[in-house]
Amino acid sequence: MDTITNVLYWLTTGLLVPVVVLLLIFFARALLLGGSFYGQFIQRNKIQSVVKAGLKIKGVAGFSVADFKEEKHNEWIATMASMFESKSSQAMLNHLIGEYEIIADKELGKSKTLTKLGPMLGLMGTLIPMGPALVGLATGDVASMASNMQVAFATTVIGVFIGAVGFITLQVKQRWYADDMNTLEFIAASFEEIRAERKINHAVPCADAKKQELVYETK
């Protein structure tokens, strides 16, 4: 039993360095995610209101994506531009919406990863040094115990910070992409209505022409 316990102790102790390294990597990713999130927030405030106001006032028929050609690097604007180019095909519109949904899910995956792995790594970084800290306490090595406890508390804070950044960005981005999907689906539905109206308008003259032909034939 002592052998198994010693093996487990050395295994868990050996995981401390990889856990700390991963925490530092995810901490850097959390900082980068926070910076990109702020940039997206500024960009959305500038574009979103203008696009929605244009669609509300002009409608899909009078709206022009060309006004946002400088924002083509924005996936939402790029998808919208592709939809206006493929407005005659409902299948292509659905395909473009599906592609944007995949892009949104991929972007949300970054925040989900931080939300889940940050606290997990923080907990591991907390529990692993506790073993050596208790050993130091039992042997009277207060300096070793204090050093291990310092590592434990530091990894906890870093893990919670990573999880908090991931959680906050995830909650906000989910609302963003839900709003984006709603707008894209509105555009697709509007194009479908326009096509249906054109079919009806085209069918009415044809029906009138056939009626006139029948009248002339009876005369």
Automatic annotation (TrEMBL):
Sorted keywords for this record are: Cell membrane, Membrane, Protein transport, Transmembrane, Transmembrane helix, Transport
GO annotation, biological process? protein import
Q: Which GO terms describe its cellular component?
A: plasma membrane
Localization recorded for this chain is: Cell membrane; Membrane
Q: Where would you say this protein principally sits, based on its record?
A: membrane
Membrane topology, record value: Multi-pass membrane protein
Q: Where is the MotA/TolQ/ExbB proton channel domain?
A: 86-177
Q: Where are the transmembrane segments?
A: 15-38, 120-139, 151-172
The family annotation for this protein states: Belongs to the exbB/tolQ family.
Would you tell me the protein name for this molecule?
Transporter PduT
Q: Which organism is it from?
A: Geofilum rubicundum JCM 15548
Lineage, highest ranks first: Bacteria, Pseudomonadati, Bacteroidota, Bacteroidia, Marinilabiliales
